[in-house]
Amino acid sequence: MALLSEQRKQILTDKRVELVASIKLHGLWPHLRSHRIVTEQNEARIKFNRNSFEQIGELLDHLAKRTESDFEAFCECLEKDNQGHIVTEILRYSAQSHSNKDFKPITHEFYKEKWQEQWSSEHENKLYCIQPTLGKWAKSSREIRREKIVQERKGN
Predict the structure, then answer these.
(1) Quick check: is 147 in a domain?
(2) pTM of the predicted structure, to 2 decimals
(3) Which residue range forms the structural domain that includes residue 126?
(4) pLDDT in tens, the chain (156 residues)
(5) CATH number for 84
(6) Do residues 43 and 120 share a domain?
(7) Where is the CARD domain (predicted)?
């Protein structure tokens, strides 16, 4: 049971205002209890003499003390309660684990090597005389847009 990573704690801190404004608790409590993220006692303590914004803040504080699997379960609870946009827009975009890393650069490099091998084996090819080595690939508009989005989210 690994405690919540510093990266995810930072997300809960940095995105707190957005999370408090976005999360709706009404239908979320049963999901949280069924995943054992909160007990009935935790729920009563969080709800006691607080408005909904304070309750969400208290829930986020409670979540920051929990484990990685509880964070993932919390994301699942939001999705089950039709609040999946919060997960995709706020919680997960900057919380990608190393196991979910982008394999596009690896794939590009692999195919570039394969194409270079094939290109090098065709010595009678007239184009090979002009350019014996494959050049750098131009970035697609989608890749450029993705880089801009990531930079904007990081806040430059």
Answers:
(1) yes
(2) 0.58
(3) 102-154
(4) 678 888 888 889 998 999 999 999 989 999 999 999 999 999 999 998 889 999 999 999 999 999 989 999 999 999 999 998 898 888 875 445 444 456 677 777 777 788 878 877 776 777 766 666 766 667 778 888 888 888 888 875
(5) 1.10.533.10
(6) no
(7) 4-93
